[in-house]
Amino acid sequence: MIDRPGEDESKDASGQAFRETDSQHDLNDLYSDLFPGSQAGEWKQPEKKANASAAAAKQDHSIPAPNTLEQTGLSLNQLCNLVLKQLYLQGSALGIEISRSAHLPFTIIDTALVFLKDDKCIEVTSGNLIGRSSYRFNLTELGRIRAREAFEQCRYVGPAPVPLDAYVKQCALQTVVGIDCTPERLEAAFSDFIIREGLLDELGPAVCSGRSIFIYGPPGNGKTLIAKGLGRFLNRQGGEIYIPYALQMENSIITLFDPTIHQTTDDLELQDRAPTDLQKGSRIPEMKDWAKPETDLRWRRIRRPVVITGGELNLEMLDLRYNKVSNFYTAPLHIKANGGVFLIDDFGRQLVSPKDLLNRWIMPLEDRIDYLTLATGKKFAVPFEQLIVFSTNLDPKELVDEAFLRRIRHKIEITAPPQDVFTEIARLCCRQRDIEYDPVFVNYLYDNFYKQGKAPRSSDPRDLLEIIQSICRFKGKKPVLSAELISEAAQRFFCQL
């Protein structure tokens, strides 16, 4: 199995079509039981649509902007601390600039500004007739003291956090369970791959279930590429989801949005909303979009994320990372993968033992809920809402016990390619390297190695052709598939195994 040269990867897929399934109802019931303090009981299933487009998906699951402080899920004290810290860092700021930094409508920020002004923590140094949104605010001496106290508690400055229950509710709406996966759509996502016949018939039900997948088999046959192909399917065909910049758990802040992982799709909209830079022009910023935005700007619209980890994975990476200096947390990798794919490559070769890793995930795989622990020792539940893929070339019986295998619903074996598939891979590898294909290449490998007991691997044509290219480059010759070069490359390659 091999990755074909990609065509234009900008083909946008239609949006996610959610279907009301028994598993979806079970998921909401489970969330209702585990999050009694949230609004789980008020969740509504997305309406079933015959042909949901990307635009419809955005409209169905977009998050409306809060109109009041209460709707933000934040207390007045939390909002005031955020404003004080921003002013402390900037020295002074316009009301609309504070609104932009907090990603909240100015009508809500104005509540904090009025309170802080009455409390003699801020003062107005200049302004225009259009209202407090154009006033320039400075900290007073008392305000600087309050800001330093706020920094001691938490040094986070940026978009206002979202309460945990709102995040839980959104995760239930954009679950991987019930993604519209058909043979045609899955085949389109794997069109750049050469795979054995019938493999998509095994992968399709696994994607539809939204459950974990265990991919195993001998090395070099494309397990990682297949797992990445599943990620590409959800990333392109799974519709768009929303993720907050940060979460608020009681008095603790957890940053969640990661630009290295989350591929945003709302950049143009945010650019259109941004006002003129005051350093480059004297015009007052346009207030209309930030005074009454249509959506909650504390969330970013992204493609379903794909998180890949390998031998570097350890148990610490699956817990909250606490910065003792800044006094806020960073979400672990598997939480950043919510709504998408979490691929554990080379499973069994991690720094942590497979047994310890699997024990960590037995309950999350079963209940789709994980528990994280704050520095204070308090535990809280978060959604474990992702398609998790284990990929290994080790014997599954040596890695996991029956209890764990039972919780992984789908096990897919990737075996050595048959000769016709191997030949197609060899042809493709030659085209990719501008080398004229000759049947002697495959015939030589089968006559001298594969028919003698050595199993063919999908990666062999690529590796052998790279050796041939290196030999020809050293000798100053054009790469060709001559019997002499094939023999020399094969002897160098196979004798090391």
TrEMBL record:
Residues 1-12, 19-28 have a biased composition (Basic and acidic residues). Residues 209-418 form the AAA+ ATPase domain. Residues 1-66 are annotated as: Disordered. InterPro entries: AAA+_ATPase (IPR003593), P-loop_NTPase (IPR027417). This is AAA+ ATPase domain-containing protein. It comes from Gimesia maris. It comes from the Bacteria. Gene3D superfamilies: P-loop containing nucleotide triphosphate hydrolases (3.40.50.300).
